Amino acid sequence: MQQLILTILFIVMISACSSEKEERVEPTPEKPVDTVQTVAGCKGCHAMQLDATHDFECTTCHSGTDNLTDKTGSHQGLISQPAHPDNMMKSCGQCHRDTVLNVSHSLHFTVKNEVNMVRKAFGAQDDLASLTDIPPAEFPVTLTQLADDVLRRRCLRCHPYTSGDRYPDVNRGTGCASCHLQFYKAKLISHSFLKKPTDTQCLQCHYDNHVGADYYGRYDHDMNDEYRTPYTTSNEYFRPYGIEFHQLAGDVHQEKGMVCVDCHFAAQLMRDEGNKPTCAGCHQETRLQTALPANVTFTDDRYVLQSENNNALHPIPLMKDPAHETFGRDVGCQVCHAQWAFNDNETHLLRSDLEEYEDFQRLTVQGSSEIEKLLLNNLDFDAEELPHGMTDKITGRFSPGVWYKGFTTRRWETVTLGRDSSGTIQVMRPMLDLSLSWIDEDENVRYDSIHSKARDKGLLPYTPHTTGKAGIFYRERIENFLNTEKNKQQ
Predict the structure, then answer these.
(1) Closest of 135, 182, 178, 136 to residue 160, by C-alpha
(2) Per-residue CA distances from 428 to 44, 332, 349, 477 (Å)
(3) Domain of residue 418, residue span
(4) Is residue 347 part of a domain?
(5) Which of 12, 120, 140, 308 could cross-link 146 (Cys pair, CB 3.0–4.6 Å)?
């Protein structure tokens, strides 16, 4: 009997391993027609589907000539990426001039808050207006220049000037197409423009342990092969976002079917106008009585939100618990309602100009397809060696040196608390807990684990999108913080 049980268990384990590769139905991209062109014009070669609003000649956006059967002539003067920031005013701006002007200066587009925050943590004095103003620093002389190099070549893969990383679910369009067209595996799925982006478009940038991934309960695995379960066998495990992730509890709003743009409206994302969404803006009756969000109505004695997801209706629960009166003025909502939070403690960034890769055999997965390709290729002695370097994510220019990344610890279970600039207790994240190192091609250590100048171990307030019921331990979470704070003051 015991032998039979062991045999059954063995069969089950083998079955699980053989089916470990995730099943996925891949989108079908538009393809050129595979026949000799007999019909003049773009659509004689390119099968495409346009939405009603944009059903006009291809040359309106792409330039070129639309009445020829000759490819060379048709493509003369062609703009392959009309929605790219360099081209979007000429193309998209023909109909959406004000929108293009506004979005090109928005925080979502310039990423200036994140850029300036990191640069100042490493000694910069002045603010930049946009990521494109970061000075190139191929051979840094100062610590700020080293930070500029890591920003341009390692960090800034998610912005409108680049098509993202080369993983299936994060490779996308540029400029306006970043959010309003659908891509998969570097292929355009459809020319049908999205009036409002879906969560699929949002997650093309908001992955990799950034807010957005947590909305779906995703937390990246450690990079080391030994900790990236489920283990791979003969097949490469499917990694649509670059690295496997733990599936934790998702946000209650996501589980109910709400999507990102139900809270994050175009005015905020594209024009930096209006207030950022808050929990109280939807769940506190006094706020609702003062100003209803655009997608909320008062019907049958209750407030209802209409979602962009199939126009589904969601009754809004109001803040009734006495705890909101007790703590509401001094404690942020997620202090009690966050189920978990991102805590990547001390992010180590090493620029290595050495063409030595053995130390990274177990760390080929770096969350960067560029580095992964380099390591896998150059660790293969039978492969022709690739040049040791990375591209500038703004200009596309290649330069020597590779930026590797690692962490002291990666955790989610402890929700760290602190006070924001107004003194309110909030959930904190070690976003500026960064250290930079650089070893040059002559094995000289130029910088050795230089930590950022950010205060409080780089902790900054943030809003984890892991909302759930407060549970029975929310008071303990607050009291533990207050006791710790009191002990530090003694």
Answers:
(1) 178
(2) 56, 11, 22, 13
(3) 337-354+388-489
(4) yes
(5) 140
Bridge partner residues of 299 (DSSP): 302
- Report helix, strand or coil for 360: helix
Residue with tokens 């896998």, as numbered in its chain: 376
- Report the C-alpha gap between 98 and 84 in whole angstroms: 16
The owner of tokens 């001390």 is 346
Q: Count CB atoms within 10 A of the CB of residue 195.
A: 9
Whole-angstrom distance, CA of residue 187 vs CA of residue 281 = 39
| Gap between the Cα atoms of 333 and 315, Å rounded | 19
- The angle at the Cα of 206, spanning 204 to 208, to the nearest 5 degrees, equals 95
Dist. CA 243–CA 241, nearest whole Å = 6
Q: What is the DSSP letter of 52?
A: G
Q: Which residues are CB-contacts of 1 (< 8 A; sequence separation ≥ 6)? A: none
Q: Find the angle CA(186)-CA(393)-CA(84) to the nearest 5 degrees.
A: 60
Is residue 457 in some structural domain? yes
pLDDT at residue 51 in the model: 87
| Tens-place pLDDT, residues 383-411 | 999 999 999 999 999 999 999 999 999 99
| pLDDT tens by residue, 257-293 | 999 999 999 999 999 988 889 999 999 999 999 999 9
Calculate the alpha carbon distances from 275 to 212, 268, 352 in Å: 19, 7, 43
Q: How many CB atoms lie within 10 A of CB 82?
A: 22
The per-residue pLDDT for range 404-417, each reduced to its tens digit, is 999 999 999 999 99
pLDDT, averaged across the chain: 90
**Angle at Cα 270 formed by Cα 268 and Cα 276, nearest 5°?**
10
Residue 271 to residues 61, 91, 158, 199, 210, Cα–Cα distance (Å): 23, 19, 19, 20, 22
Beta bridge partners of 400: 389
For the chain, the straight-line distance linking the first and the last C-alpha, in angstroms and rounded, comes to: 65
81 and 177 Cβ atoms separated by less than 8 Å? yes
> Per the structure, how many domains does the chain have?
1
Cα separations in angstroms, 274 against 99, 206, 261, 304 = 16, 22, 15, 21
CA trace torsion 197, 318, 253, 287 (10° rounding): 30
Angle, helix 143-150 to helix 112-121, in steps of 10 degrees:
150
In a domain, 404, yes or no: yes
**The residue type at 462:** Y
Percent helix, strand and coil across the chain, each rounded to 5? 30, 15, 50
Q: What is the phi/psi pair of residue 94, to 5°?
A: -60, -35
| pTM greater than the 0.85 cutoff | yes
Specify if 444 maps to a domain: yes
